[in-house]
Amino acid sequence: MGASLPSAGVRFTPATYPHGFPPPAPLISVDVPAWETSFSQPPPSQPVITQTMLHQSLDFAYEPTLIELTSAFDQLPAPTLPDDDSSENMGLISLQSLSDAQPPHPDLPWRRTTRGDPLDKTQKLLLKSMLAASPWGRSIKLAKYLFIGHYLVGTFENPFFVPAAISRQLITTSFIRALRFNTLTYEQLSSEPLTLVNDDGSETIVGWSYLRNRFLDFYITITSKLRKITRGSTSPLAGFANNEDQKIEKISELIVGLNSSDRKQVLQAICRLIKTQAFKEVLWAGLLQPIAELDEGNARLADLHPDAIQTWTGCLRKEIVGVLITLAFTLQIPSDSANLKAPDLHPRIMAALDEMYANPNRFPAFFQVARELPSLQETNVLVMDPKNRVPKYVTDEMGVRRMKTMSDLRPIDVAFTSDFEVPHAQFVFPASSNDEMHISYFTTS
Predict the structure, then answer these.
(1) Nearest to 299 by CA among 176, 415, 142, 139
(2) Helical spans, DSSP H, in 63-152
């Protein structure tokens, strides 16, 4: 893991203290069960339902525990390191504390990620409706998209290999930023906890210590959606191939190229992929499609991270290209043990992109496309349905309802903006402020 962030996502200004200011007061111990990682650890204890530790998924139709991740993207972005990683071993990001004079609210330090869910199905359904109507709802929704955006725009040097403590810190930072945007304080929200009345008349109180543990489920939901869109987009409907056999052959060639130790083959595979309609569909669905769930008008995920989308020359940033290729375009055929897993493949792809972005004159066809992509709009994509993996249905001039086809798509109308803006944006999220808490509030040592 590198020692610094690439120039993407929310910009963090290097501080005099590279890991932020030291905490101004003794840290408050939070004893919650650890997430069992791929490393050897003692088995986590059973989750206990208390007044301060509850937890649930914001996507109630989705059961993460029923999903088998058997592809090259088996490893979730966090945690992939032991939960006892200290701040000295992070070497990932440098974040300042909220204030060098005032400690955070005692509920905000968070030392272990709990994956067990103590709520039953009935409680989850009740919480879903209650959350939507409560002061918590809007900030939680916005925080979720701020959080997932950091991964999709490539804020981290390797988004597929992020320490658990950094993930906890990022979830908390996203929540604090959402509160600030909605002109709320944590004290205001915590004074209005979500109270579930159970069948036996007892009450279960849900607060931040429960909700924060479901952000990673949201990550799984979003990335699963993007993989389904990729599968639909690598079909004859999107012009990727003429039939299923040709599709498998073409994807196999691309995967061989991306996994090659020959840099030239990696470069060729990237140049072929970025020109496909499939890449446009994934970019649209991941970053440029308006998010109906948010209350902020026509906000897109890209609008939450406006300085992470394009370079000063107007090209799609290499971090986004690297993440989307790693995430979506290495998973379309059965796993092969010879292929690299995402945490190892991503650095290889990024090394090739580093060469390309340092020498744009050598790759004119690539950069012609990369300069158009930040301006992508709905008129340029099929808008793949992730469930059925087919294009969006439209009503044509004859009043006939049918699926969009490639002939319906228009050329991309390139809009020139500054590198801190997103073309066609109708919503602007404010730049980052000092909302980050010191990393020691999220480590176990």
Answers:
(1) 142
(2) 121-133, 135-152
Q: Which of 112, 109, 110, 120 is nearest to 57 (CA)?
A: 120
Spell out the per-residue pLDDT of the chain, length 445, in tens: 443 333 333 343 344 444 444 444 443 333 333 222 222 233 333 333 333 222 222 232 333 322 222 232 333 333 333 333 433 333 334 344 434 436 789 999 999 888 778 898 889 899 999 998 999 999 999 999 999 999 999 999 999 999 999 999 999 999 999 999 999 999 999 998 899 988 888 899 999 999 999 898 898 999 999 999 999 999 999 999 999 999 989 998 999 999 999 999 999 999 999 999 999 999 999 999 999 888 766 899 999 999 999 999 999 999 999 999 998 876 555 556 678 889 999 999 999 999 999 999 999 999 999 999 999 999 999 999 999 999 999 998 888 999 999 999 999 999 988 768 899 999 888 876 667 889 999 998 6
d(CA 56, CA 115): 9
Alpha-carbon torsion, ordered 214, 220, 226, 227, to 10 deg: -170
Q: Which long-range contacts link 427-430 to residues 24+ away (Cβ below 8 Å)?
A: 427/296, 427/297, 427/298, 427/299, 427/300, 427/303, 428/303, 428/306, 429/181, 429/296, 429/299, 429/303, 429/304, 429/305, 429/306, 430/181
Distances, alpha carbon 139 to alpha carbons 133, 343, 430, in Å: 12, 31, 15
Beta carbons within 8 Å of 79's beta carbon, 6+ residues apart: 35, 37, 113, 162, 163, 164, 165, 167
Rounded to two decimals, the pTM is 0.78
Q: What angle do CA 389, 323, 72 make, to 5 degrees?
A: 70
Q: What H or E segment, with its residue span, contains residue 195?
A: strand 194-197
Token reading at 2: 């590198």
Burial code of 332-352, b = ≥16 C-beta within 10 A, e = fewer? bbeeeeebbbbbbbbbbbbeb
